[in-house]
Amino acid sequence: MDVNLGYAAWLAQKSTEIDTLELTFDDSSSVFFSLSDHTTCINVTSEPEIQEPNLD
Amino acid sequence: MLHQSLRYKSLILTDFVINTVPFSVLVSSRSQALHTAVSQLYPPQLVLAPEPEKIYDFCLTVERKWAGWGRPYHVSAGQQHFRMTDSAQVVPVFEWGFNWCIASYQHQYLAIHAAVLERHGKALIMPAPPGSGKSTLCAAMMLEGWRLLSDEMCLVDLTDGSIVPCVRPVSLKNQSLKLVQSWYPSAQIRQITTGTTKGTVGYLLPLADSWQARGQTATAAWVVFPQYNVNQTQLQLSPISKADAFMHLANNSFNYAVLAEHGFNSLGRLTQQIQAYRLEYADIKQALSELSQLC
Which spans in chain A are helix H? Predict the structure, then answer.
């Protein structure tokens, strides 16, 4: 039973990996795009580096 | 691009073409007044007689459906109705119809609702909802020497990521008409129309260098989300994360959802190459100075 559940979870995870595009920017923030339902979302767990404006 | 039923009927004397880059629009209209007004807004070399053997990107019909001078004009593209208007407001409704065609029917570019200006080959993109002061700021920047790419539509080339100009007259509304004219007395504002759904609307003519370079693309370098706030005591320019900028840009896009994966990849490439800020200001001179230092 445990083995079956584990396999199902693995399948779901693989499916998510294949169906989702991830873009990680150079400030470490990132966004996801679902190829299955075409939704876009921000990765709330990433911590972007905020830099001050480059002014004289 | 659209079904061009007009090709199969005889063109009439008041039909004309606006051949802007990258789009051309065939205007079928029995209104000589519209042709005259458009000729005040666009350079003469862009307002042309139609050629039946040519295919134009869009066909806009501006005509009265029934006889009689009291009948409103119907603005439509092919079988798609856009809006009705009386003759006094036909110019702004026509311009909005042109915007509607670009936003609705072209998908070779990722289109974002934003003003775009260029300096030294680099583009500043300013997406913002109505009421944020985007067009006023855009007008002032152009009159301060930036090259105008568009006050309404940021077009991103899906193949190389460049920003494609779509130079048109700058739409100014209500207070901004008087403000821009008072700040820049030589600014040429034409076709002021009162009582529209957006209030009083007028059109600032782009400067000659913007028209002349209308085919010259630029590289995206900055995205600034402007917000005019009369209660703002001190200008604030705050950096925002690229993921936040991406989401705001996607929300301001007309066809991000249509382009799906292509839109995601294109917008991702653009976001990677820009610096993104939120600008809150009350004094436009401060805003101009800050943007001049930033860019």
Answer: 2-19
Listing DSSP states for B97-125 in one string gives HHHHHHHHH--SEEEEEEEEEEETTEEEE
What is the per-residue pLDDT for A12? 55
- Per-residue pLDDT reduced to its tens digit, B57-81: 999 999 887 666 677 889 999 889 9
Chain B residues whose CB is inside 8 A of the A30 CB are 243
- pLDDT band at B152, cuts 50/70/90? very high
Please name every residue paired with B64 in a beta bridge, in sequence order, or none if there are none: B73
pLDDT at residue number A13: 54
Full-model pTM: 0.88
Mutate to test the interface with A, among B122, B124, B241, B269 (most CBs of A within 10 A): B241
Tell me the shortest Cα–Cα distance from A9 to chain B, in angstroms: 26
Q: Residues 6 or more apart from B69 whose CB is under 8 A from it?
A: none
Given the cut 0.95, state whether the ipTM is greater than it. no
| CB neighbours of residue B28 within 10 Å | 19
Interatomic CA distance for residues B136 and B130, integer angstroms: 11
Report yes or no: B209 and A8 within 8 Å, Cβ to Cβ. Answer: no
Out of A25, A53, A55, the one facing B242 most closely (by C-beta) is: A25
Q: Do B294 and A43 touch (CB under 8 A)?
A: no
Nearest-CA residue of chain A relative to B266?
A: A23
CB–CB contact A42 B243 (8 Å) = yes
CA distance B81 to chain A (A): 29
Q: Which residue has the tokens 């559940």?
A: A5
